[in-house]
Specification:
Keywords: Isomerase, tRNA processing. The protein has 297 residues and is α+β, with helices and mostly antiparallel strands. The protein contains seven helices and 19 strands. It has three domains: 88 residues, Pseudouridine synthase, CATH 3.30.2350; 132 residues, Pseudouridine synthase (2-Layer Sandwich); 65 residues, Archaeosine Trna-guanine Transglycosylase, Chain: A, domain 4.
Length: 297
């Protein structure tokens, strides 16, 4: 089975746990996830199956949305409540000060990466070094934060919504909030509510997928990659299908249909029955307007 399954990962599971369960449920060997979620976090975790794994680079560069709970007055090396917690302050922060701090953290900003993260330092995962007490953080990383909205606040706890780019650590944002307020802050809960076009309210829990499996309806949960990526779709003549499968880029006479109005550089190549044959990029050649970069066998 080939496509994308929008899974709602529940707290306590690792992202790899979810991949393993999807691999078993769908009986596929090729399987991977888009955007790791920490075990304590829950929410949207798109899983790629079959040939959809070959489109991972195109599908992963998307914006995210998170709902995060934070606690003021404390801090930890992991920037959340999963490691030893240190009391910092009893200072009660006003809503105005919180919102001003949120505003100061929007845009492209360099923040500390948590020591307890999967980032590699000289080939070693940061969390392994942190467990040995060898690092306090995993260095700096530029993150793009579009907006931070305060949804609820009752000291010392608050809930915020964060819209951000790929690779943003919500724990880093919360830790920085605590530093700027001089109170300390840590993350006490996290939900990824959106991963690109995939939303939490339209994602499947593993138990729901297991139920669909029992009813032989698992295919209902699979979204074709060509329904997610906004690429042009060309239809190839039957006589040229064999050439496509052999990796030969199509010439100008091989198309049944070419979307002239599509201004993007990427295209899906389909047969006249709607089956995906390949993916290609636009090129300048008048004889061969598309260059194959993925062939589906």
């Amino acid at each position: 089975m080939n496509g994308i399954v929008s899974v709602y990962k529940e707290s306590g599971m690792t992202s790899f746990d979810v991949v393993a369960k999807i691999r078993r449920l769908f009986n596929v060997s090729k399987c991977g996830h888009l955007g790791t979620l920490d075990p304590m976090a829950e929410g949207v975790l798109p899983i790629l199956t079959g040939y959809a794994t070959r489109f991972a680079d195109y599908l992963s560069s998307v914006d995210k949305e998170y709902i995060a709970e934070f606690k003021l007055g404390e801090r930890s090396q992991s920037y959340d409540n999963t490691s030893e917690i240190e009391k910092v302050s009893d200072k009660i922060v006003s809503v105005e000060d919180l919102k001003n701090t949120f505003s100061s953290l929007t845009g492209k900003i360099s923040l500390k990466v948590p020591a307890y993260s999967a980032k590699k330092i000289n080939g070693v995962r940061a969390y392994k070094l942190a467990r040995k007490g060898e690092i306090e953080d995993a260095g700096q990383k530029e993150m793009e934060i579009y907006s931070i909205d305060l949804l609820n606040y009752e000291y010392p706890f608050g809930i915020m919504k964060v819209s951000c780019g790929k690779g943003t650590y919500i724990r880093s944002i919360i830790n920085t909030i605590g530093e700027r307020l001089e109170t300390g802050a840590l993350m006490s809960g996290l939900i990824r509510s959106a991963n690109g076009v995939f939303k939490s309210n339209k994602s499947y829990k593993i138990s729901q997928l297991e139920q669909l499996s029992e009813e032989n309806k698992l295919s209902q949960a699979v979204i074709p990659v060509y329904d997610v990526l906004e690429w042009g779709r060309v239809v190839i003549k039957d006589s040229f299908i064999k050439h496509i499968k052999n990796g030969v880029s199509p010439n100008k006479d091989s198309f049944l249909f070419f979307p002239i109005e599509h201004k993007g550089s990427n295209f899906f190549i389909m047969d006249n029955k709607g089956n995906l044959l390949a993916a290609a990029e636009r090129c300048e050649s008048s004889d061969h307007p598309l260059k194959l970069n993925i062939v589906i066998n």
